[in-house]
Amino acid sequence: MPDVSPTKWHLAHTTWFFETFILKKFIPGYRAEIPEYAYLFNSYYNTAGDMHRRDLRGLISRPTVSQAQRYRASVDSHIDDLLSNPDESVLDEMEAILVLGFHHEQQHQELLITDIKHVFAQNPLYPVFRQRNRDVAAKKITPIYFIDFEETVTAIGHDGDGFAYDNEGPRHRALVPAFSLATRPVTNREFIAFIEDNGYSRPEFWLSLGWMTVNEQRWNAPLYWTKRDGAWWNFTLSGLRPVDQSEPVTHVSYFEADAYANWAGARLPTEFEWERAALSCPIEGNFVETELFHPVAVVSAVSGDKPGKGLHQIFGDVWEWTRSAYSPYPGYRAAPGALGEYNGKFMCNQYVLRGGSCATSRTHIRRTYRNFFQPEKRWQFTGIRLARDAQ
Q: For all residues of the chain together, what is the average pLDDT?
């Protein structure tokens, strides 16, 4: 799949980022040890030079993993030397790029998880990435309720306290009409009901482009699902196992999320509704630090929690599709140069997702964080939370 990159490419690309935007910029006369790496490991920064085709990355046999690791060690050493005796006049500029590089690397750590899962899923032996040592799934799931939110004018976007990507600003005021938001994400059991009601073969639920995609790709279930002897199974990073019906459904596209919402008599939330609702929620949940690498049910058999009618799993577990197109906030301007290509150039034909997933680091997510993907993408841990207009 063109979206999936080899593990060693992620390692080398994040290294290239620091070499390109720190070493080449702040070390006079710096010369790359292997100049060809700039072509191999540039991703999409056109201003930084030409690049190898993304869909052919898996065909590159060299450099080897050990050579990529040596490249990383060399760049790390140069960075250490630079920081041990920095030029005070450029220290603030250098720090800003370094911090961006750290967050960029966290994004690629998340992609490592999802890319490894996709590669393993192509193997009929269904390799195990990490054994699941404990059963965290609930046997019963709390029903979905809807929480009402009154109309309000609220501040949207990052407030300037700490790091944020440029697409999270400028902070601005937005009118958010009254709406209702589901207390938890849609579960596998609920999505199976959609499947069994012929949801994938009923065009009245689907956007036109979604309906075309379903038929072209022959979708009949979320990605990684397969039916055996009348029962649904799904591939996880702990191997192939029966679908746990209490877990949040994941690996669904925007098209599937929107079709399910239509079938359920609801809709997807806007990103502004989501952000408004998330303001009162603590940033805690099932993130990559748990090393489960899979969503868990809202009721945990381990903790024995019995949640009430508050919002649950707003953060972690699954990225939640919103119905908002990924577009600039009022007053947004991309920064000049190659780093200005980081987010702004993608503000076309994509939808916003919020909240992070089981592959996201807890230290990476914010209430204002705007993830974005094309509507047909399914290989990330993407899920569904329903919303409704005010009754």
A: 93
Q: For Cα atoms 298, 302, 308, give the angle at the middle one, nearest 5 degrees.
A: 35
CA distance 67 to 73: 10
Task: Mention every residue, 6+ apart, whose C-beta is less than 8 A from residue 378.
Answer: 222, 223, 251, 252, 253, 256
Q: Please tell me the total number of residues recorded for the chain in this structure.
A: 391
Closest CA to 275 of 385, 114, 375, 146: 385
**Dist CA 269 CA 323 (whole Å):** 6
- Find out whether 248 and 383 touch, Cβ atoms under 8 Å: yes
Per-residue pLDDT reduced to its tens digit, 177-212: 999 999 999 999 999 999 999 999 999 999 999 999
In SS3 terms, 222-234 reads as CCCEEEECCEEEE
Backbone φ, ψ for residue 346 (5° rounding): -100, 10
Amino acid occupying residue 195: I
pLDDT at 300: 40
Q: Under a CB-based contact definition with an 8 Å cutoff, are residues 326 and 352 in contact?
A: yes
What b/e sequence results for 172-182 when a residue is b if at least 16 CB atoms lie within 10 Å of its CB, and e otherwise?
A: eebebeebbbb
Find, among 386, 55, 378, 383, the residue nearest to 219 by Cα: 378
Mean pLDDT of the 366-384 span: 97
Asked if residues 342 and 166 have their Cβ atoms less than 8 Å apart, the reply is yes
Determine the distance from the C-alpha atom of residue 208 to the mean position of all C-alpha atoms in its chain, rounded to a whole number: 25
- Is residue 342 predicted with pLDDT exceeding 90? no
* pTM of this prediction exceeds 0.85: yes
Distance of alpha carbon 253 from its chain centroid, rounded? 12
pLDDT at 305 over 80: no
| Residue 322 pLDDT | 98
- CA end-to-end span of the chain, whole Å? 43
